[in-house]
Amino acid sequence: MVDTRPFLPVSSSDGSNPSEPLANGRKPMKALLSIFFGLLAVGLLAALLTSNNGSDFVTENEHDPLASSTTTTKSEPLRPLSRGPAAGVSEKSNRLFADENTVAFPWNNSMLSWQRTAFHFQPERNWMNDPNGPLFYKGWYHFFYQYNPHAPVWGDIVWGHAVSKDLIHWLHLPLAMVADHTYDKSGVWTGSATFLPDGKIVMLYTGSNAQAVQVQNLAYPADHSDPLLINWIKYSGNPVLVPPPGILSKDFRDPTTAWLTSEGKWRFAIGSKVNKTGVALVYDTKDFINYEKLDGFLRAVDGTGMWECVDFFPVSKTGENGLDTSVNTPDVKHVMKVSLDDDRHDYYTVGTYHEKNVTFVPDDLTIDVGIGLRYDYGVYYAAKTFYDQNKNRRVLWGWIGESDSEAADLQKGWASVQSIPRTVLLDKKTGTHLLQWPVQEIDSLRLNSYEFNHVSIQAGSVVPLEVGPATQLDIIAEFKIEKEALEKATGSNVTFSCSSSGGAKERGALGPFGLLVLADDSLSEQTPVYFYIAKGSDGNLKTFFCNDQSRSSVASDVNKQIYGSMVPVLKGENLSLRVLVDHSIIESFAHGGRTVITSRVYPTRAIYGAAKLFLFNNATEAGVSASLKIWQMNSAFIRPYPNLDNKSR
Amino acid sequence: MKNTFSLALLQLSFCFTFFALTHISALELHGHGASLIETTCQRTPFYNLCVSTLRSDPRSSGADVAGLARIGADKLKAKATATLRQITALLKVTKDPNLTTALRECVDYYNAIVKYDIPEAVEAVVKGDPKFGVEGATDAANEADACGRGFKNQPRFPIYDSNKVVHDLSAVVASIVQLLL
């Protein structure tokens, strides 16, 4: 008999069972059909599930996704973005536009040229960022800085250079270092200076090399007998350091000044990150040419991201002088400072340095590196200190960027200034804070002064201060608030913060009160610098120090945030502040520099002769009295060094 | 005959299923490339534009996030340059003085985008200082926004679509570069 069982070829028989005897033609047909449709259904389902990922591209636009049709209809307005983190991410930094119905302000040259500062360091034009390698040598203070010679935005970075006898009157010199070697072809980035025992200078700096890998390079003055240190030589064996294993090629920059260990080696730190943990790597060297990477990190803190511009230095627990970076005696604390890439803020922590196991331990872990106190609660980044052996003090530089629109920067042809250099000391009274104060040499800019004693400012009032022109001022003020008001006020457990408050117009029982800076007569533009006292439900008082930009300008394309923080006020202390007003920059110091705020403001009306100064008290239940001394400030006449042979700008 | 027919049906159904299954697994194989674009674009404000833009460049299939940022910036540069050309061409034939003023301002904004913002963003991504890349891309979005606002009270906005793409794509690039911090 013929064998009626089907013989299936090898290729198609995937686990199915063909050996069912075909007793009757109909049943297998039904079975096969049902199998077929079942598998068809499975196949269709699979095709359906996978199609969503692929066809957006096709269905979105029939042709090029970036092509646009020639319609002339207008749809919903574009969403403006803040200049800091992009839309959809936390808006901690600059918030540029108030809402989408605002218009870019028609800045004219008069308004823009007014913005240039009179006594803050800035190059004649273009872009600047981090301070580099500050030092004192043969009678001159030297300042180097990240500079773009071609545009008022970051890019093509080289080292600018300037000198001064007093940290205030600066003279521009030719560029110190340019991107002329493979190891810094893509950028001559931030670095620090170290003095050798014989008085010679070595500079360690980051180069972005021709492959855009971040490496560390050694440079030194070409001629140590030249007090202006105009020419610099790069070590022929550069780079001296490349990213070590475990560190990515773009997470390795900004070496610190080195300090001596008790074994006589030089030690320095360099910031980086491992995933989202900010870290400080440590190296030892005897000659700045050969290096030994030490195990572990000087400090590491989860979630802080990349640590830029690490700074590490000793402060005296008892004395009023600064300390050389190598000092490590028992009467000393150490400060570790980092610039956080993630939020553009500088943080410092006080703690103890253990040389033997190469670690830094914060005094208070709740304010660890990158999560604690800030040098400055306004615009302030990439700060760096140096030990000034000329006057035995530690001096701090900080980069102050712009808070206006980039279009305005392009129009005015420059962007960024440096803060006035500040001395840094440990606050002996609190033990937790640093005190920052403008270097004493700035007093040499003071011209005529105005004194006001015990001016009484009632609750809800504004008092004009006649001081003449109000765009270049040094203001020192002390405030007293009615004691009964402090005692009578009812406390609450509502937490206050400058940035989330309504600014100076939000009235509380015990604040705000302070100064209205760069204000016009009608107060249509004003920048309040003020105190706000909050009373807790336990009766304890907390003092806040704020800087309110919300009405600093009628222009809407400038930063309108409110900056500030709590300032510790100890028993018996009066509320004190110092404010430096210099055109588009305001630096304000509360309580001897325990809390500092720097802001950039861009008024359109409160400029030139129309800028005025007021006292204000917007508290509801407390009268305030203020005593002030105010000086007109001269220009520092910052300009190119005269009669230099090889001026190469 | 019946047997052949049922055989054919069976084979067809198996082939169909096999095809469907391999289609899925093929996507799984390329899954790493496609899903990095998707997960990256999910963190931008304009997902579809992000995905279609990145996918339109063959370099995207093997790229890491920095590579995607670079591709986005390159695409943005092309679009902004083309839009600038569109604007200058329109200026030649426009007779309406209000329209001319608005277009002239947009020339300034687009010069800033092409000359400063995008090169800053590319340099920052390539060299590894991403915060300046976020700033450059955000500035580009703001310039495009400013250009658009010049047409607020105008009856016609001839470059609306191109300008919107430049704005949105700038925002996308800014978000991607933000991930590199």
UniProtKB/TrEMBL annotation, chain A:
Principal location: other
UniProt-listed InterPro entries: Beta-fructofuranosidase_N, ConA-like_dom_sf, Fructan_Metab_Enzymes, Glyco_hydro_32, Glyco_hydro_32_AS, Glyco_hydro_32_C, Glyco_hydro_32_N, Glyco_hydro_beta-prop_sf
Transmembrane regions: 31-49
Region described as Disordered: 1-23, 60-88
Protein species of origin: Hibiscus sabdariffa (roselle)
Pathway: Glycan biosynthesis; sucrose metabolism
Enzyme class, spelled out: hydrolase
Protein name as annotated: beta-fructofuranosidase
Highest rank taxon of the organism: Eukaryota
Biased composition (Polar residues): 10-19
Family according to the record: Belongs to the glycosyl hydrolase 32 family.
Automatic annotation (TrEMBL), chain B:
Keywords: Disulfide bond, Signal
Glycoprotein listed as a keyword: no
Pfam (any one): PMEI
CDD domains from the UniProt entry: CIF_like
Residues spanning the signal sequence: 1-26
Pectinesterase inhibitor domain span: 32-176
Gene3D superfamilies on file: Invertase/pectin methylesterase inhibitor family protein
InterPro entries according to UniProt: C/VIF1, Invertase/methylesterase_inhib, PCW_Enzyme_Inhibitor, Pectinesterase_inhib_dom
UniProt record similarity statement: Belongs to the PMEI family.
PANTHER family xrefs: PECTINESTERASE INHIBITOR-LIKE, PUTATIVE-RELATED
Protein name as catalogued: Pectinesterase inhibitor domain-containing protein
